[in-house]
Amino acid sequence: MAAEGWPRCPAIYEIYPRSFLDTTGSGSGDLSGILTKLDYIAALGVDAIWIAPFYPSPMRDGGYDITDHCAISEAMGDMQTFRQIISGAHTRGLKVLTDQVINHTSDRHKWFEKSATRESGFDDWYIWHDARPDGTAPNNWMSYFGQPAWTWDHRREQYYLHQFLSHQPNLNLRHSAVKDALRDQMRHWRDLGVDGFRMDAITSYLHDESFADNPVARPQVRALVGGPSYSPYARQDHRYDMLPGDGAAYCDNVRNWAGADAYLLGEINVGNHSIEIADSFTEEGRLDAAYTLDFPERGFTAQVIADVLDRMQGSAGGRITMWLSSHDQARHSSTMGDGSAHDAKFLAMACGCLPGPWLIYQGEELGLPQPELTRDETTDPFDLMFWPDGAGREGARVPMPWNETSRNYGFTTGTPWLPMRWDAGLSVAAQQADDASVLVLYQRLLALRQTHRFTEGTVDYAEATGDLLHLRLRTNGGVFIAVINFTEAAQQIEAIEGELLLASGSGVTRTHLPARTATLWRLA
Fold first, then answer.
1. What is the pLDDT of residue 218?
2. Does pTM top 0.85 for this prediction?
3. How far apart are the C-alpha atoms of 314 and 189, rounded to whole Å?
4. Half-sphere exposure (Cβ direction) of 441: Cα atoms closer than 13 Å
5. Exposed, middle or buried by CB within 10 Å (0-12, 13-18, 19+), for 204?
6. Quick one: average pLDDT of 267-276?
7. Which CATH architecture fits 457-523?
8. 236-262 pLDDT tens trace
9. Which residues, in sequence order, are bridge partners of residue 99?
10. What DSSP state is assigned to residue 454?
11. 21 partner at 20 to 30 Å CA-CA among 36, 197, 221, 404?
């Protein structure tokens, strides 16, 4: 069951503040931009918003390198505006999640400075380790960014662990004083009215204290390890640098800190046994839900969907979240489709009909394709590390197009922090005026989710026949069928005796499903 006051399978809209709406002319989005657009978000029909980091940060990693977890970046706004967002969201029936990034801090955080200089009481707040006798790093662990996971600090004459950038040192989450500090920061935001948290990189929190070398990834393991195959990160079986025996159990702490009525959503950033790991992190008294990398990294196909649904049969109650895009992934309209409105609608239907909560990343409701950026225009370290084959994170962060009549598509009166070159017809204003737009399809699908709650039911079956998926969901309100054609050709299907609630395209009959089309039916 979800936290008190939450639907079992909420639809959650992710906002990346820097790219949502700028109200000051700085070229970067801010909290006032979110406040200004709460009516737009509520009109989508989502249940909640997740606001990505707005904390003080040197912005080495898009705001996920934080110098003060209890403050607001001056570039983003102030606490009064944040309180107005909470109040305005609640008035409109929206819950609010904020990011909790407790795996690491910025290397400019005052805690790290104190730990690096061995200030009394802070000596063990981070993961420090002596060098090997020859001066090299303590072991072979790799960071997710494809670099060694250890960086030398001359002040301590020791290495510190970082599972992401060297600018993001790992906190020692087993340390009692660190746990007290994390408890206090989560309660700080709850006291301000936040309804829950998205827990960043939750499977990275702990490591095996033996510090043993990770073994080489066998081919079958390498195929499932998170991250691109061209990164050296994928060449290791991450047996010791993450998820030791007490990894999932650490969520008991997170639940206690957040409170029983907080909704907790965890990012499962490991590929091996992802669904099974998500199950362990969402046991009673832990997280409400988690999302894995299966669809973005394995592919969003009939076969992968059927496999995921088969493996999550023990995840009753909306514990596994469905999603296709985020601030960390290239936009799925282009990576999983051809960038057209037709494919954007198809992918929305195919994902939004699946059982469980649904994450929607700002702009996907417009069918935004992945923009192309030059190397000179790119600042994201992950994209630059493997240029031009990076993850495309920066492209997914190109600001929102609100209209086509104002400068910079209504995003800013200044110079946008990333160049905006959107095609005509993609803006919010254009799609609000078009009954056949991607935006309107999202609104209709989200309304059906709220009316029928079909994603909260049990799965009678999920069968993939080639690239054709049949899904049958049973709820207290009836039986629902989703038939999804991933092929490039029309398919004849067994006659469906029921009401067609919604289709992603035209030409659907009870026995005929056009190419790249998804349908949702309610049986008579």
1. 84
2. yes
3. 32
4. 29
5. buried
6. 87
7. Sandwich (2.60)
8. 989 999 988 889 999 999 999 999 999
9. 198
10. G
11. 197
At 115-167, the pLDDT tens digits run 999 999 999 999 999 999 999 999 999 999 999 999 999 999 999 999 999 99
Kind plus residue range of the DSSP H or E element containing 462: strand 458-465
Name the nearest CA neighbour of 96 among 46, 152, 166, 154: 46
85 CB-contact burial (10 Å; exposed 0-12 / middle 13-18 / buried 19+): buried
Write the pLDDT tens digit of every residue in 128-141: 999 999 999 999 99
At residue 132, φ and ψ (nearest 5 deg) are: -65, 165
Task: Identify each DSSP E strand in 43-136 by its residue range.
Answer: 48-51, 95-100, 128-129
Residue 148's identity, in one-letter code, is P
Backbone angles phi, psi at 161, to 5 degrees: -85, 140
Domain ranges (residues) in the chain: 11-103+175-207+242-448, 457-523
75 burial via Cβ count (<10 Å: 0-12, 13-18, 19+)? middle
Q: Which CATH architecture has domain 11-103+175-207+242-448?
A: Alpha-Beta Barrel (3.20)
Q: Which residues contact 413 (CB under 8 A, 6 or more apart)?
A: 22, 25, 407
